[in-house]
């Protein structure tokens, strides 16, 4: 039996759609001793992760301004409403907005200049749990991590319940937030940089804190690696 020519066109179209619809898979794993509530915006929403759990999120090509983070000390009812001690995103389990500081951030933009993915760990919104953010495919092997005891060593003026604030969150001045578009490292931003040299410590910390992989790479984000 011969199949109509249109059948093969449909199969080819379907194959193209299914292989191109998602640029990257992000495997998010909780290795902390306690439960965390992972958040992923703009794709994914949120999910409770008990110790050892992994949540996989498929992210479309071209996604920008994306974040993955851990929320701690959460309590949600059956409808997914409640709140978290750190990283809360408007009192809902399924995040649609960024989380409240302090929270350690995995940030990324996919298929950008020269079809590169750009990714980083950011402490510009402070720190709540240690994190690893690493590629897992495509021949890209340069991962980043921030595993220091920042909460335990946090300067007194930055201490927060469940985490350590970035100075911009606390003081909201141009010196720390770069509101005018220009600023330099400070003693407080260097506290973060000294402990996590590959992470963003203040908004203009691009040179040593942004990493790239070819578009189509998959990644893992590990809390408490």
UniProtKB/TrEMBL annotation:
<feature type="disulfide bond">
    <location>
        <begin position="146"/>
        <end position="196"/>
    </location>
</feature>
<keyword id="KW-0732">Signal</keyword>
<protein>
    <recommendedName>
        <fullName>Thaumatin-like protein</fullName>
    </recommendedName>
</protein>
<feature type="disulfide bond">
    <location>
        <begin position="89"/>
        <end position="95"/>
    </location>
</feature>
<feature type="disulfide bond">
    <location>
        <begin position="154"/>
        <end position="164"/>
    </location>
</feature>
<dbReference type="InterPro" id="IPR001938">
    <property type="entry name" value="Thaumatin"/>
</dbReference>
<feature type="disulfide bond">
    <location>
        <begin position="168"/>
        <end position="177"/>
    </location>
</feature>
<feature type="disulfide bond">
    <location>
        <begin position="32"/>
        <end position="224"/>
    </location>
</feature>
<dbReference type="InterPro" id="IPR037176">
    <property type="entry name" value="Osmotin/thaumatin-like_sf"/>
</dbReference>
<comment type="similarity">
    <text>Belongs to the thaumatin family.</text>
</comment>
<feature type="signal peptide">
    <location>
        <begin position="1"/>
        <end position="23"/>
    </location>
</feature>
<feature type="disulfide bond">
    <location>
        <begin position="178"/>
        <end position="183"/>
    </location>
</feature>
<dbReference type="InterPro" id="IPR017949">
    <property type="entry name" value="Thaumatin_CS"/>
</dbReference>
<dbReference type="Pfam" id="PF00314">
    <property type="entry name" value="Thaumatin"/>
</dbReference>
<feature type="disulfide bond">
    <location>
        <begin position="74"/>
        <end position="84"/>
    </location>
</feature>
<keyword id="KW-1015">Disulfide bond</keyword>
């Amino acid at each position: 039996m011969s199949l109509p020519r249109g059948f093969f066109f449909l199969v080819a179209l379907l194959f193209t759609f299914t292989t191109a619809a998602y640029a990257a898979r992000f495997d998010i794993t909780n290795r902390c001793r306690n439960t965390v509530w992972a958040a992923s915006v703009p794709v994914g929403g949120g999910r409770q992760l008990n110790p050892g759990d992994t949540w996989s999120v498929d992210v479309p090509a071209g996604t920008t301004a994306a974040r993955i983070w851990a929320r701690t000390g959460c309590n949600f009812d059956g409808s997914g409403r409640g709140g978290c001690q750190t990283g809360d995103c408007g009192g809902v389990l399924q995040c649609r907005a960024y989380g409240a500081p302090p929270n350690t951030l995995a940030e990324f933009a996919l298929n950008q200049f020269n079809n590169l993915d750009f990714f980083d760990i950011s402490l510009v919104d402070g720190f709540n749990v240690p994190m690893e953010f690493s590629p897992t495919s495509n021949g890209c092997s340069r991962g980043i991590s921030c595993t220091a005891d920042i909460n335990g060593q946090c300067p007194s003026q930055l201490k927060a319940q469940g985490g350590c604030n970035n100075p911009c969150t606390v003081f909201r001045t141009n010196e720390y937030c770069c509101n005018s578009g220009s600023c330099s490292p400070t003693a407080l931003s260097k506290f973060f940089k000294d402990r996590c040299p590959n992470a963003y410590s203040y908004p203009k910390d691009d040179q040593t804190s942004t990493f790239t992989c070819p578009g189509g790479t998959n990644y893992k984000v590990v809390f408490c690696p």
